[in-house]
Amino acid sequence: VQLVESGGGLVQAGGSLRLSCAFAGEKFDMYAMSWIRQAPGKGREFVASISRNGGTYYLDSVKGRFTVSRDYDNNIMFLQMNSLNPEDTALYYCGARFSLPIDYLPRTADMEYWGKGTQVTVSS
User: Fold this and answer.
1) Which of 7, 41, 102, 123 ranks highest by number of CB atoms within 10 Å?
2) What are phi and psi of 60, to 5 degrees?
3) What pLDDT was estimated at residue 4?
4) Angle (CA) 62 65 71, round 5°
């Protein structure tokens, strides 16, 4: 499994970005997926996850602003980020974990596979 993130960039506070995570490998529909981020000088922080059957879970500070989704036809996961603020500045990674239960929702940064990340910078 290989994961490649894209869509990061520089945006002003209050703006929006949509991140993409391309999944290369077999059986995308057998994996629970997640987004985590790492700000400069800080540890990795769980942001959002999506189960095999489309259930979602979010970090409290991004609820109502971020939306995670997945496209099974094209093996892509998305993170729509609205109302961005400078505290959202970080390197964003996507992760994948093989899951037999269709409703398993990761809630930590403990995943099997990770991409290399895409940088999101929010200016004030």
Assistant:
1) 7
2) -55, -40
3) 98
4) 100
* Distances, alpha carbon 114 to alpha carbons 63, 96, 124, in Å: 23, 7, 30
Q: Is 36 exposed, middle or buried (0-12, 13-18, 19+ CB in 10 A)?
A: buried
Distance between CA 108 and CA 70 in Å, rounded?
19
Residues 68-116: tens digit of each pLDDT: 999 999 999 999 999 999 999 999 999 999 999 999 999 988 899 999 9
Q: What's CA 91's distance to the chain center, in Å?
A: 11
Q: Which two tokens stand for residue 54?
A: 């489309």
Indicate the length of the chain as a whole number.
124
69 and 18 in contact (C-beta within 8 Å)?
no
